Inverse folding.
């Protein structure tokens, strides 16, 4: 057996503690608020990260090492999110190493041989459950574990802006977190390190490498999306990655649908045909009380705030609650802007943008009462304005921004808001604009409706969820078990 491989060691039941390092201040990049308290997809980065370990089956406990000036903020996040695995929020130290030592001190009452500790950066909110599980598994064999990914860039060494060496890229990795250790291993390494007057390290594996050099450090394969939010641009990138990750909506069984929808009230604007009708049909099938509103069936004009208010009041009066509000109403007018009449422009703006605004405002008190969700719809054209789609694509981009802004604005009120982004879908609105199109080239309204229901029943908020034809149910953007 190679000398660098360690034989598995039989141990009694092991406790795994995740230590989330949240001591950053944000001042280095000019932020007044610590990066870990900035919001992405409707939640703070810290909450996203803590939820990862809350959901990890093999993590028993979570300790947060917080910037000393924001301990109360972190405690409030933990309380509101109901994060039961978080046992303590402690002030961090003046350096990464000092913070680690404070965490080790907080674990002093645990068995050094039967405790694993995972140190993870709070500003890596896209860590996967696979990586967490691989780290815990590796600690059954190894005493120290790092997470790393290959470097796609050539790394150079410089001295005074002159290249001095170009290391072989195949042997290089980019380090991530978590970094995992048996508690005895990391304790012993730090005990030796503090005796070194020149001790300084940017991470904990470096401490083990330098001060316990005979301890092999196993490398677990990381993932590109496990990025560290360091610079302002990273916030934008992380937000987009959350949107992509949310495309895999939770999978629900028929029993889940029935349990979560029975007795709930669903209001669907644009519910007479197409996607809206599909959502309403599915919700009714699984026991929801559904109220459908449209211009053709109920003479409800979504561009009229009074009609919206009357519809919501009717649903609430009949059932005593409103849990979900869905707006699929929209108009699609194709043509050059300079050749478009004023009345057409006004209709597009009123139906495609002002209507979601009015629906959101009118829905707020009802959804705040039930902790419900507002679901809006955009179009793939929102990402880039297209010729002859100027009104449609720009209003759909505005809907996405409205979704993300309200998810942040209403998070304290317990309201979730998401946006479905289907690719070209076979609906009467599209047929009216483009005529009949080749079979198999369009997404079915039923598939969009199924994804919509999955999103409504999820904990997601602030997400733009893509639905694509090539995804099979339960494997991609469509989610669900159908």
């Amino acid at each position: 057996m190679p000398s660098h491989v360690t034989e598995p060691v039989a141990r009694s039941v092991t406790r795994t503690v995740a230590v989330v390092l949240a001591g950053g201040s944000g001042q280095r990049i000019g932020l007044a608020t610590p990066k870990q308290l900035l919001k992405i997809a409707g939640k703070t980065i810290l909450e996203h990260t803590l939820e990862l370990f809350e959901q990890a089956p093999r993590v028993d406990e979570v300790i947060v090492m917080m910037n000393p000036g924001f301990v109360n903020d972190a405690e409030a996040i933990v309380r509101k999110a109901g994060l039961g695995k978080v046992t303590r929020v402690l002030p961090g130290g003046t350096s990464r190493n000092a913070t680690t030592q404070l965490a080790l001190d907080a674990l002093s009452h645990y068995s050094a041989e039967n405790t694993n500790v995972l140190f993870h950066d709070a500003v890596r909110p896209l860590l996967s459950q696979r990586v967490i599980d691989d780290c815990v598994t590796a600690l059954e064999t190894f005493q120290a574990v790092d997470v790393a990914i290959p470097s796609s860039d050539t790394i150079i060494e410089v001295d005074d802006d002159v290249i001095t060496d170009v290391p072989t890229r195949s042997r290089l990795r980019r380090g991530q977190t978590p970094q995992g250790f048996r508690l005895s291993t990391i304790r012993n390494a730090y005990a030796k390190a503090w005796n070194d007057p020149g001790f300084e390290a940017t991470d904990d594996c470096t401490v083990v490498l330098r001060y316990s050099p005979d301890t092999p450090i196993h490398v677990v394969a990381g993932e590109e999306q496990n990025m560290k939010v360091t610079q302002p641009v990273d916030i934008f990138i992380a937000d987009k990655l959350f949107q992509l990750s949310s495309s895999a909506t939770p999978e629900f069984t028929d029993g889940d649908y029935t349990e979560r929808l029975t007795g709930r009230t669903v209001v669907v604007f644009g519910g007479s045909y197409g996607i809206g009708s599909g959502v309403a049909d599915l919700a009714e099938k699984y026991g929801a009380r559904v109220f459908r509103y449209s211009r053709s069936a109920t003479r409800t004009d979504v561009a009229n705030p009074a009609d919206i208010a009357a519809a919501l009041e009717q649903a609430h009066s009949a059932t005593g609650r409103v849990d979900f509000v869905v707006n699929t109403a929209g108009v699609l007018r194709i043509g050059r802007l300079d050749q478009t009449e004023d009345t057409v422009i006004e209709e597009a703006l009123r139906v495609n943008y002002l209507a979601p605004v009015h629906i959101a405002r009118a829905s707020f008190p009802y959804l705040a009462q039930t902790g419900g969700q507002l679901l809006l719809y955009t179009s793939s054209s929102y990402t880039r304005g297209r010729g002859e789609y100027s009104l449609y694509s720009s209003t759909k981009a505005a809907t996405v921004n409205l979704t993300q802004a309200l998810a942040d604005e209403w998070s304290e009120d317990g309201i979730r808001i998401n946006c479905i982004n289907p690719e070209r879908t076979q609906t009467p609105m599209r047929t009216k604009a483009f005529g009949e199109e080749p079979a198999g080239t369009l997404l079915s309204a039923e598939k969009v409706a199924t994804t919509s229901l999955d999103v409504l029943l999820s904990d997601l908020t602030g997400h733009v969820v893509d639905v694509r034809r090539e995804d099979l149910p339960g494997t991609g953007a469509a989610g669900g078990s159908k």
User: Anything to note?
Assistant: Confidence is low (pLDDT under 50) at residues 471-482. The chain has two domains: 15-229, 254-467.
